Amino acid sequence: VRQLEQARQRGAGDIFGQPAASLAAMEAMSLSYMAQQQQHAQLLNQHRMAAQILAQRQAEAAALAALGYQAGRRAPPPAAQQELWLEQQRLEQQRLEQQRLDQQRLEQQKQQRQAQLQKQLQLQQLQQQQQQQKQQQQQQQQAGKEDKESCPTSGWQYIDPKGVVQGPFQSFEMRLWHGLGFLQPDLPLRCDPADSFVELQKLFPPPSVPFESYPRRVPANGQAS
C-alpha cells in the first residue's frame, strides 16, 4: 500500500514490474484485503463478546444452582424479586401439602366406607346363619315331634266339593281312600274339631306320609303345631 501511494505521488508508470495501467486494479485489491481484515476483526470481537456472555450466564446458572433453584424454572433477579419468589414457593408448598392432606382424607373415608360395608355384610351373613340355624332347629324339633307322635287314628273330617263337612272317619279309612286317589291334594282336612281345616298337601308336607306321619295341625288360633 505504501508503495502504491508513493507511485501515485511520483506518477510512475511501472511498479513491481507491472505497467501503470494495473495500478487501479492493485489498489482495488488492497482495499478489498483491508475490508476483509476489518470483517475478520469484527468477527473476532463478536466471538469474544459471545464467549464473555456465555461465561457470565454459566456463572449465574452455577450460582442459582448453589442457591437451590430448580432446573428449568426461570430464576428471578437475585435482589429485586427474591421475596416474591420465596412467597410463590411458600404458596406452592402449601398447595401441595393441602393436596396431599385432601388425598389422605379421601383415602381414609374410602377405607371407612369399605370397613362399614364389610361389617354390614358380616352382620347380614351372621343373621342369615342364625336364621338358618333356627329353621333347622325348628325342623328338627318338628321331625322329632312327628317321630314321637303317631298319626291320630280317629276324628278325621274333610269338606267335600259341595262345602259339606264329612266325618269323622278312622285313619285307616282315610289312608285307603288316599291310596285309591279319592283325596285330592287341595282337599281341606282336620283330625280334631278344635283344629282348622288345612289342605291335604299342607297337612302332610314331604317327606311325611299321609295318614301315617303326624300331621301339621293348625288349631283354631291359627298357629301350626
Provide mean pLDDT, rounded.
78
Largest sheet: 4 strands, antiparallel
Percent helix? 55-70%
Give Rg in angstroms.
59 Å
Residue share in β-strands: 5-15%
Distinct helical segment count? 5
List keywords for this structure.
225 residues, alpha+beta, four-stranded antiparallel β-sheet, two-stranded antiparallel ribbon, 5 helices
Can you offer a commentary on this structure?
- This protein starts with a helix and ends in a 22-residue tail after the last helix.
- It has five helices and six strands.
- The chain has 225 residues and is of the alpha+beta class.
- The longest helix has 67 residues.
- The protein is rod-shaped, with a radius of gyration of 59 Å.
- Helices cover 60% and strands 8% of the residues.
SSE blueprint and pairings:
Blueprint lengths: L1 H9 L3 E2 L2 E2 L3 H45 L14 H67 L7 E4 L5 E5 L1 H9 L8 E3 L7 E2 H4 L22
Summarize the structure.
By secondary structure, the protein is of the alpha+beta class. 60% of the residues lie in helices and 8% in strands.
